[in-house]
Amino acid sequence: MPGWHVSGSLPDMTRWARHQRPRRNGEARRGLSRACRLFLEKHTLVALKRHHATYLATALPVAKTLRPPSPEARRQSAGTLPEFVGPLAPCPAIFPLATERILPVRCPQGPSWTLPPMKGIAMTDYLTHFGLKEAPFSTTPDPAFAFATREHKQALAKIAYYTEERRGMFLLLGEVGTGKTTISQFALNRCRSEPERFSASHITDPSPRTPAAFLRLVLASFGLPTMRNLLDLKAAFRGFLVDQYREGRAVVLLIDEAQTIQTANLDTLQAMANEQTQTAKLLQVVLFAQPNFEYKLTQKPALRSRIAGGTTLNPLTLDEATDLLRHRIAVAGGDFDRIFSAKTHKTLYNATNGVPRDLCVLCDAAMLNALAMSRRTVEGEAVERALRDLSFKGWAGKKAA
Predict the structure, then answer these.
(1) Nearest alpha-carbon partner for 173 in 331, 35, 313, 26
(2) What pLDDT, in 10s, does the model give residues 112-123?
(3) What residues make up the domain containing 49?
(4) DSSP one-letter string for 342-380
(5) What 8-state DSSP symbol labels residue 328?
(6) pLDDT tens-digit profile of 279-308?
(7) CATH value at residue 352
(8) Within a domain: residue 109?
(9) pTM, to two decimals
(10) Are 200 and 254 in contact (CB under 8 A)?
């Protein structure tokens, strides 16, 4: 309340709150909470967790309705903050707001406790050290860094053919990290670059449990309104397909992580793919899945029979892997052959089996270790350290032949 300030130690205030006569249930507890809050706000504070000797340091702003304590009150309350197991006290480095907005108070300072220095490696140091403009090995599907290998080009060409010819369903299989998402982004961008010919959408999480939820997800991906009733959802989607066909546009649905589609929704997908005229399929579906999706297809022979085409992405060859890394570092403004010594190329490839995502992760870790060792070239020692750091991936035992 205005004009009232708190002094005394936290235990004193706790005893005061507990001995207030409660006029109704819970009043004493609220009084304790209010007393603790005022005390912490007044002294910037540290709230003691009662169990496991764990303490949480937090700075709280002073309530505007409370006037600052008088000099005499500050002298009386000096040194009355609760002691902790293990020294911990507010300091300007931890609580910048406290030093700017709250009057300074005397806090119990433990023996030889100081804020540990921050010695992290900044991204600017990483880039400057290797002469780069941006990080070359991000694992996001950035089109600027995408490198189309022979198999990637073939997959994109097949997807373009099956969607343009309105053949219905196409399946692209590939292990984790082989570039399925990157290809899906390329295919989506190609369709969206020709809005007069294609109406395309991309689903990255096709795992809703019910057919109604799955259909709502599909409708929403095309920007269409959704409803609750399953029959209404089917009618709305069928109407959308017919409208697009009359306007001369092919409707393309790209589904990433197709192996996560619920078994019940595979029947929904089959029904969607059945929408057709006498000459063309109204919906073109491109599925991007891991190899275990084949098992689900064995349980749905009717759906499998409707998949008109497919292909499989295999890991890169050694030459393709080296070209991929050389391309990514060149886009980032560097020179791969200057940064990575020739002796590391085969080690990088053997450890990751030529999987693009794993190559990027390992190269990034190797460069970080070279930076920590103050070396401008990534040698075998930096790669070996990176393999040890990433031992949980099962790469540590794979050495160059």
Answers:
(1) 313
(2) 444 444 455 556
(3) 10-101
(4) GGGHHHHHHHHTT-HHHHHHHHHHHHHHHHHTT-SSB-H
(5) H
(6) 889 999 999 999 999 999 999 999 999 999
(7) 1.10.8
(8) no
(9) 0.66
(10) yes
